[in-house]
Write a structure and sequence with these properties.
This protein has a four-stranded antiparallel beta sheet. It has a two-stranded antiparallel sheet with strand order 3-4. The chain folds into two domains: 4-51, no CATH class; 68-187, no CATH class. It is α+β, with helices and mostly antiparallel strands. The radius of gyration is 17 Å and the shape is globular. The chain is built from eight helices and six strands, in the order H-H-H-H-H-H-E-E-E-E-H-H-E-E.
Length: 188
């Protein structure tokens, strides 16, 4: 299991979070893989960092971005390299992997990415960390940026573009299942 706390800490260092702010975080590695510890760190981020900083840090996270899922997306990207982004999105249903969020281009040129399972009004969080917690649980959408990071990494391979997480429009866990997860990315 990845050490998400350590990964977030390393990303903060790379992003140049000031020493004054950085020292206010609890990065102790005791019980580093317990979801409660992750949520504590996320709550600290929400209090100490700007929304842009939180998104920038969380978009660098994301599990399941290596191995077969990554290869499937890379192969798709190579196969359709001559297609436009819009054409690739249209062909995306041909990709055979469970790690395939649906997506659409928005009128403003951003990309909406939808993730999760369930039906309207009863969506489920797909995050392995969240599944370990007693439900219902109150979770900041900042945490969901980790799943946005997963989607970003795989979609960059498939679509052949650079993406930047711009907004977490909704999440299944923070809406108590009323909304599905929607991540909005700027295409660079």
């Amino acid at each position: 299991m990845p050490n998400l706390i350590k990964d977030i800490k390393n990303t903060m260092v790379k992003k140049g979070i000031s020493e004054e702010i950085f020292t206010q975080f609890d990065f102790s590695e005791a019980n580093y893989n317990q979801p409660e510890r992750i949520l504590t760190l996320i709550n600290q981020m929400d209090k100490l960092l700007s929304k842009e900083q939180c998104l920038s840090i969380m978009e660098e996270q994301g599990c399941c971005t290596t191995g077969k899922p990554a290869k499937a997306h890379s192969d798709f990207g190579k196969k359709y390299a001559q297609k436009t982004v819009e054409e690739r999105i249209g062909l995306f249903e041909k990709l055979e992997t469970p790690h395939k969020p649906s997506c659409k281009l928005n009128e403003d040129g951003t990309l909406s990415v939808f993730w999760g399972t369930g039906n309207e009004g009863d969506y489920k969080c797909v995050c392995g960390f969240m599944k370990k917690l007693s439900q219902p649980v109150n979770v900041s959408k900042t945490f969901c940026g980790c799943c946005g990071g997963h989607a970003r990494k795989i979609l960059q391979r498939s679509l052949g573009v650079k993406l930047r997480l711009n907004k977490i429009a909704s999440s299944a866990i923070s809406s108590k299942g009323k909304k599905h997860c929607e991540f909005i990315f700027k295409i660079n």
